[in-house]
Amino acid sequence: MAFGITRSELNAFKEKAQRGEIAILTHYWYDERFPQYKTVTKAGCSNVETLVKWGKQYGLKREWIHYQKGLPHFDLLGENARDVLKKEGLESQLKKFKQ
């Protein structure tokens, strides 16, 4: 479940990804497997090959793609998420979640 974002932000992320573009969205998140992280950044795209190609520049592997709810995406945590957000010019997401 996503916390700290609006329905319109979530819908914009989904719409962009479904158009075959790389969409990136950070939200509050908790998983007991990773208690040290408070947020997750999702990088999604309906075109898996586009997502794989994009992910390679960040050292992301095809086998790390999640296919939940029909939208292929990478889950990015910690330094990896910060690095991607900075390089993609999305520092606003870092500031919003005090990263």
Describe the protein's topology.
Layout: H1 7-18, E1 23-28, E2 39-44, H2 48-56, E3 73-76, H3 78-87, H4 91-96
Antiparallel strand pairs: 1-2, 2-3
Compute the average pLDDT.
90
Unreliable segments (pLDDT under 50, ≥5 consecutive)? none
- Helical amount among residues, as a percent range? 25-40%
Number of strands: 3
CATH C-level label? Alpha Beta
Our estimate of the beta-strand percent is 15-25%
Count of all domains:
1
Q: What's the order of the H and E elements?
A: HEEHEHH
Distance between the termini: 20 Å
Number of contiguous helices: 4
Q: Could you say what the CATH architecture is? A: Roll
What structural class is derived from the secondary structure elements?
alpha+beta
Net shape = globular
Sketch the major β-sheet. Answer: 3 strands, antiparallel
Kindly report the CATH topology: Endonuclease I-creI
Oligomer: single chain
- Main β-sheet, spatial strand arrangement: 1-2-3
Radius of gyration: 13 Å
Protein name: YneQ
Organism: Alteribacter keqinensis
